[in-house]
Amino acid sequence: MNNPAKRFWKALAAIYLVAAGFAVLGCSRNASHDSPTNAKLRIVSLAPSMTEVLFRLGAGESLIGATDHCDYPPEAARIERVGAFGAPNVEKLLALSPDLVIAAGLEREEVAEVLRRSGIRVLDVQIRNFEELFDAIRQIGEAVDRLQQAEGVVARMRAQLEAVKAQNETTPRGHRPKVFVEIGDHPLMTAGGTSFLDDLIVRAGGVNVAHEISQAYTSINPEKVIEWNPDIIIVAQMDRPGDAAVQLSRRIGWADISAVRNGRVIDDIHPDLLFRPGPRLIDGVKALAARLHKPEGKQ
Amino acid sequence: MLSLQNVSAGYAGRFVLQNVVVDIAAGEFVGLIGPNGSGKTTLLRVISGVLPAQHGEVRLAGHNLREMGRRDVARIVAHLLQDHALGLAFSVREVVLMGRSPHLPRFGRETERDLAIVETAMDLADVSHIADRPITEISGGERQRAFIAMCLAQEPQALLLDEPTSHLDIGHQLSVLNLIRNLNRQTRLTVVAVFHDLNLAAEYCDRLILLDQGRVVAAGAPMEVLTAEMILNVYGVSVFVGRNPVSDGPHVVLVASGCPGVERKSAIPLHI
Amino acid sequence: MSTLCDKKSLAVLGVLLLALVAACLVSLLAGAVPLSADDVWHSGIFRLRLARTALGVVAGAGLSAAGVIFQAILRNPLAEPYVLGVSSGAGLGASLAIVLGLSAAGAWTLPATAFAGALGTILLVYALARTPTGAAPVQTLLLSGVVISAVLGSILMFVVSISPSEKLHGIVWWLLGNLQVFDWGLLRIVSAVVGAGLAVSVLFARDLNLMALGEEPAAHLGLDVEWTKKLFFLLASLMTGATVAACGLIGFVGLMVPHTVRLVAGPDHRRLVTASALAGAAFLVLADSIARTIIAPREVPIGVITAILGGPFFLGLLRKRKASYWD
Prior knowledge:
The structure holds 3 protein chains of 3 kinds.
Chain A: H1 2-31, E1 43-45, H2 48-56, E2 63-65, E3 83-84, E4 87-88, H3 90-96, E5 100-104, H4 109-117, E6 121-125, H5 130-143, H6 147-169, E7 178-182, E8 184-185, E9 188-191, H7 196-204, E10 207-208, E11 217-219, H8 222-228, E12 232-235, H9 244-249, H10 258-261, E13 265-266, H11 271-275, H12 281-292
Parallel strand pairs in A: 1-2, 1-5, 5-6, 7-10, 7-12, 12-13
Antiparallel strand pairs in A: 3-4, 8-9, 9-11
Chain B: E1 2-11, E2 14-24, E3 29-33, H1 40-48, E4 55-60, E5 63-64, H2 70-76, E6 77-80, H3 92-98, H4 112-124, H5 140-153, E7 158-162, H6 170-187, E8 190-194, H7 198-204, E9 207-212, E10 215-220, H8 222-225, H9 228-235, E11 239-243, E12 250-254
Parallel strand pairs in B: 3-8, 3-9, 6-7, 7-8
Antiparallel strand pairs in B: 1-2, 1-4, 4-5, 9-10, 11-12
Helix pairs in contact in B: 3-5, 4-5
Chain C: H1 7-29, H2 44-74, H3 86-99, H4 109-129, H5 138-162, H6 165-176, H7 184-203, H8 205-213, H9 215-220, H10 225-247, H11 253-265, H12 269-293, H13 302-320
Helix pairs in contact in C: 1-2, 1-12, 2-7, 2-8, 2-10, 2-11, 2-12, 3-4, 3-5, 3-6, 3-10, 4-5, 4-10, 7-10, 7-12, 8-12, 11-12, 11-13, 12-13
C-alpha cells in the first residue's frame, strides 16, 4: 500500500504549497490596504481563542498570521492563514518571520522547537480554567506591550463572573443543576474535571456530572450518562437539524434521563461561547447561567 | 455412449480442439494419448461439459450436452482430476459422500442408501480401512483411490480420468489401473483416460485415440496406433516398438541416443 | 455424514449455545455501571445493555459466518470478511460522511454510506475479476480484492489526512469498531439482514463443502459454480456490510472464529456455519463486556479487544493440536 499513499502525500504537499502561494498572493494584496500606524510586533496566532484575545487587547493590527478557524472578530478574516488549528504549516510560519507566535496548547512540541531555533518567541499557554485564562491574557498583554489593556479586560471579566456568582449564591449548593456536556456523539464524548468547560459549568452555577473523570476530553459510555441522570444536557453539535431533546429521547435508555424528560436540552448556545477558551467564554457563562435558572426548559 | 461430432473448443478465442470426431461405446476403456498441448485434457473437459464446445455437438448417453443441466451431467459422467489440492481435513468417508451430491435432493440429507453406496464405493477402491482418516493425512496413492471412490459414489455411466497415475509409484499405478479395469470389465463402466505413459495405455485400453495439435490423428486398437512411424510424426522422436512378452501387445521402447529428428541450430559447442 | 442433527453436531452446537447465553448474561450484568438484580428490568441502562448485547450477537454471528463463507469459496485460510477490500470501501464511505458532515442529514447516513461503500467495493471487485465468459475465478477475485483494497485504502488515508481534527476522532473511533447503539431501528435492520443471510447460508451449506474441493471438481459433482459463488458472495457481503454499517470495522473475528471452530467442529460446513455464528456471537459479546469495563467509564474500541484476545488464544489452540486443519 506504500506507493499509492506516497503519491498522495506528495500530491498533498504540493497542494498545500500551491494553496499557500495563493494565500500569500491574496493576502499581500489585502495587506497593502492596511497601513500600520507604527512599527510594531509581527504576531502569529495559532489558536482562534488567542486571536480573539489579541483583538480584545487592541493588538489585532499586529496579527500577520492566523489559523483557518480564526473567524472572530470579523476583522480577522483579512489575516493570512497558516494552516488548520492544530496543524500549522511550519514553512509558512517561518516564511512570515513573525516576532511572536502565540499558541494555546500546541500539541506538537517540535513546531515550537523549530520556531524558537529560528529566533521566534513562542508563547504557549494552557487554559484549563478561568484563572489560567486570566493569566494567559495578562501574559499576552505583557508580550505585546498592552499590559494595561489586559488588566482591564481581566478586571471586567472578573466583575461579570462575580455578578453571576452572586446570582448563583441564591441557589443552595446541593440543588445546583447537574450538567452533561455532549461534545460529540460518535463516539459519545464529554469534558472531564480538568477541562475549562468544567470550570465554566461551575461558574454558571451548575455541576459537571463528568467532574470525577480526570481527562479533559474523553469518550464515555452512554450507560454512565443514564446513571448520572443530569438535569441539563448541552449538545455541542449544531449541524443536527430538529429538536435535540426529541432526538436524545429516541436513544435507547435515555428517555428517562431527567434532562431529556423535562426537555432541558440546550443546543442553541453558540459553541464558540462555550468551547473557545477566549474572552467570549464569559458570554458563555452568562448564557448558560441564564438557562440554568429557568425552571422549565423548552417544550 | 459418448460422442463428439465436429467439435471445436478452446480458451480465449484460441481453438485447442479442432473439428474433433470421437465415438465411444458403452463399456469401452479408451485411452487418450498425445504430446503436451495436444488437447487431451481439453477433450475431457468438453465431454464433462465444464468447457462448452464452440462448434459441434456433444452427446452423453443419447442426450445433447447443451440441453443438460450440471446435475444431469454429473449423474452420467464422473471426472477425476490429476490432482486434488484439498486443504480442509474432511475424512475419506465425507469426501466420498460428496460424490452422492448429484443424486441428493436440493436440500435433503443423505439417506441410508446413500451411505451404503459410499461403503461399497470405498470397498471397491480399497479405502475402507482409512474411511475415518482425514484426507490430508493419507498418502498420495490412497488419496487418489479415495477420489476414485468419490467418483464411483456418483454411480456414473462413464468415468473420465485425467492422468490418473502420474503422481504415483509403480505399485500404486498398477493397483489403481487394475481397479479401474476391473470396474470396467465387471460393471461395464465406460472409461476415458488420459495417459502419458504409452505402455500403460497399451496395456489397459481397448482403444487408443491419438491427438496432435487439437486433431484426432489416429484411433484404433493399441497395435494399430502405436507404430514407430506414428510416434515419430506426432512426438518427434524415434522409438522402437516391440512386443510385450507377457500381454502380447505393443511395447514402446525409448531410445536414449542423439535426436536424429532435431536440427541443431548452432554449431557452438558447450564447454561444461 | 454430518448434518445439523447428528450427535457430534448437537453436542458442539449445544455447548456453543450455552457459551453464548453465558456471555450474554455477563454482558448484561457487567458494565460501566453496577446493576443489581432489582433495577435490572426497569432501568434504561438495562435496555441499553440489552440493545448492545443484541448487536454483539448479531455482529459476531454475521462476521463469523461471512468468514466461513469467504474461506470456503476463496479456498484460502487467510480469507476473512474484509479480504476483498470491504474494510477500505466501507471506511472510505464512513469517513467521507463524517468529513463532509453528511450526518446532518440524519442518524442513518453514516451506516448507509458505510454499507454502500462495503457493497460497492464487492461489486467493483467482482466486476474487475470477471472474464469475458462471465466467470470470476477465485484467484482473480483475490488479486482484484487486494488491488481495490489498496486503492480505496489510499483514498481513505488521504481523507483522514485532510480532515479537521474534530472530525478525526470520529473517524478513528469508527475505524476501530464499537458496539455503541443508539436506536432500535438500525439494530432491527442489521438483525434482519444478518438473520436472513445466516438462514440462507445454512440452507445451502452443503454447496460450500463442494466448493472446498475446488471449482472444477465441484462443477463435476453437479454444482453450478458461478451461481453458487454469486449467491455466497452476496450473502457474505450483505452480512459484512450490515455489520460494518452498524459497528464500524471489527477485525479479527471473521478470521479466527472459523479457524478455531473448525478445529473443534470439523470442516463440514453444514455444522461449521451455525457453530461459527454461535461462537462468534459469544466471543464478540464477551469482548464487548471487557471493552466496556476495563477503563470504565471510558470505552476501549472493540476492535482493539478482539485483536488482543484472539491472537494469543488461537496460537495456544494451535500448539495444542499437532496438525492444523489447513494444509
